Amino acid sequence: MSQKSVVLDAPTPEPRQVTVEALQAHILEKLTYSIGKDPIVARPHDWLAATIFAVRDRIMDRWMESSRETWRTSNKRVYYLSLEFLIGRLMRDAMSNAGLMEPVQQALTNLGVDLGDLIDLEPDAALGNGGLGRLAACFMESMASLKIPAYGYGIRYAHGLFRQEMSEGWQVELPEEWLAHGNPWEFERRESAYEIGFGGHVEGVTDPDGELRQEWHPNEHLLAVAFDTPIVGWRAARVNTLRLWSAQPIDPILLDKFNSGDHIGALEESARAEAITRVLYPADSTPAGQELRLRQEYFFSSASLQDIVRRHLQQYGDLGSLPDKVAIQLNDTHPAISIAEMMRILIDIHGVEWDEAWTLTRGVFGYTNHTLLPEALESWPVALLERLLPRHMQIVYAINAEILTEARKRAKFTDEQIARVSLIDEQNGRRVRMGQLAFVGSHKINGVSALHTELMKQTVFSDLHKLYPDRINNKTNGITPRRWLMQCNPGLTSLLSETIGDAFLDDIRKLEELGAYADDPSFQKRFAAVKLENKTRLAELIRERLGVRVSPEAMFDVQIKRIHEYKRQLLNIIQAVAAYDEIRAHPERDFVPRVKIFAGKAAPSYWNAKLVIKLINDVARVINNDPAVRGLLKVVFLPNYNVSLAEVIVPAADLSEQISTAGMEASGTGNMKFMANGALTIGTMDGANVEMHEEVGDDNIVIFGLTTDEVAAKRAKSEVPRSAIDASPDLQEALNAIASGVFSPDDPNRYRDLVSGLYDTDWFMVARDFDAYVAAQKRVDALWLDQSRWNRMAICNTAHVGFFSSDRTIRQYAEDIWGVQVPTA
């Protein structure tokens, strides 16, 4: 009997009941026999683990059936490779999607336990940083909801991204201990362990038939061990798998060294292996940091591809059908080494000829580009790749030769064009361009918003687009409405259900029906009441964490995202300083009370971003404690931004700050989350803001600032920004206050260089967009004073969010890139 038939014919246990009584008994059973606690002495974390185990057991039935169904039907599988999966807390997500929320809540109530307390106790998985990782999580949930067989592949970081704390307003990075007490959602798969090699040399070997082939002999080996987490689709339509790799040594301890007295040296191999999966995005400002990042990327790429090829051969027996049964999506350039690794696996391990291997490789891979920033389009020194991955460097050279020959002979490229499309950058110390490698090795390349995709064609990939004009396409990002509306905002979800029915729960586009109620005073009142309740909850969290009291009646003006100069938190806080000056100078005027809320992490080595965090905290300290402000303006920075914190902030936001320098934000997904929850957007025509503007119209969004073309023109002319500053007395006054130490009396020069950069270059157009930003904020104030109009605009935003569902995005990936049929029922 074949292994496939064994898989399909094996018996399975009867599905567990989902009644309140059955769940109550099962939770007690898990508490007693899996946790080992008597209910009398059980602590909240014991009840949490027991509840997760009980919920997980009910998910297992659907998980196994989903796998069997894929084997039975031989449906094409999608493999999503991402260095980040910002999945957040899983218990509420799983219960909600599986229809278990109410029976579990009642079962726990009967046991004297509050479900809400347990949900807040669950650790937030530290597997990502920002939009890239949260997008990957949304995509995984949408693929399961749409019944697409899929695996997510990433790294099981022991600490992940750092835990952010504040010390006198400065960001401090501490290890995130999310795995300190284990992870009840994951399953270790000992059988899915693969050997990963580094270093060594390549040797030419002649086969008996006279063919010369290459053999790579690494001098360093470690194991990649799989840990699987179930990802539950809406209404448990399907349960897919998130497979994360943990690096482990082949020999955990070198006994000869240990016995000779070198007790530390005996653990060297363990330390070297475990460092790979210790931390997300180790600082790459040193050669050692760069090497660790490359090791991470190759480690998870190689393990994932070995797993994919093994599974394919197990089911189909030959590699020729790979493009028909396998679709691999590279989420940004981090897994781009997969192109060379797939070629190595096909040619060196399975004996596939080069031309066929290249056809198969391009047939399975798609590449999503997330940025036009040069520093984010990774490149690695040739010398590093030659030392760490010598066989892959050979393959990169061979691919490059083929591409450049094609460019010269078929497309008649000039020397300058050849240099630009080459996988090897010869101008900056000889580096391998990973974006170029991902592009040439994929059959489709997509941007993540309409504007971003067009800019890709015009800028970073302009010559490759000329060489392969049919490859670039657009797939505007989306968010899962299950987590970012239904779960994080139950009050609004309930109101929507009462008003337009439940159909939107299964098809978010049905929210368009809400537009008919935008002018209804009664509905506006109820809509506003839900928002006030969410704001009251956030105000309490701010008081608990920061000791700052804010009024829920004030406008909550929110910018939560990774701290980066192009995202322009600096523009926001400078405007806060200008508003502070205006309030003190004109106490006779009526001002709209505002709470400016910031959250986000700065990369440990990104000094200017960390300095902006310090500036926000310094400005907050002064403004929040000045009685002359009379509570009209508050500034708060909430530390350790993560998914769980976002789930509290997003439903409470009145104003969504999406103010990146035009042409620099690929898409954004926070803008969509705010939109779904009835916040107005103030933003530039950048990323998905452009499409949001198209969806809601001029009347329901506040747009300001330079356009992409205007930004490019000013940069091309090397225009000195000083003239913009000289023409704006408010900006001058704010910058002088910051630069002179008004907000940093302990160090008057702290922000001098930060401000001087605005006078000298202002690459991110902070100074040149300032007056337009202030004017836009004045428009926001005027809208706020007309609450009926504000509520109408907020309702219209929620009503038009359907386009920005990740379900729509995934359907388009499936149709245009993966060649996967999405079931209609």
UniProtKB/TrEMBL annotation:
The keyword Transferase applies. Its EC number is 2.4.1.1. It is found in: Cytoplasm. Gene3D superfamilies: Glycogen Phosphorylase B (3.40.50.2000). InterPro entries: Glycg_phsphrylas (IPR011833), Glyco_trans_35 (IPR000811). GO terms for biological process: glycogen catabolic process. GO terms for cellular component: cytoplasm. SUPFAM superfamilies: UDP-Glycosyltransferase/glycogen phosphorylase (SSF53756). The keyword Acetylation does not apply. The modification N6-(pyridoxal phosphate)lysine is found at K673. NCBIfam families: P_ylase. Allosteric enzyme that catalyzes the rate-limiting step in glycogen catabolism, the phosphorolytic cleavage of glycogen to produce glucose-1-phosphate, and plays a central role in maintaining cellular and organismal glucose homeostasis. PANTHER family: GLYCOGEN PHOSPHORYLASE (PTHR11468), GLYCOGEN PHOSPHORYLASE, LIVER FORM (PTHR11468:SF3). This is Alpha-1,4 glucan phosphorylase. It comes from Devosia pacifica. The gene is glgP.
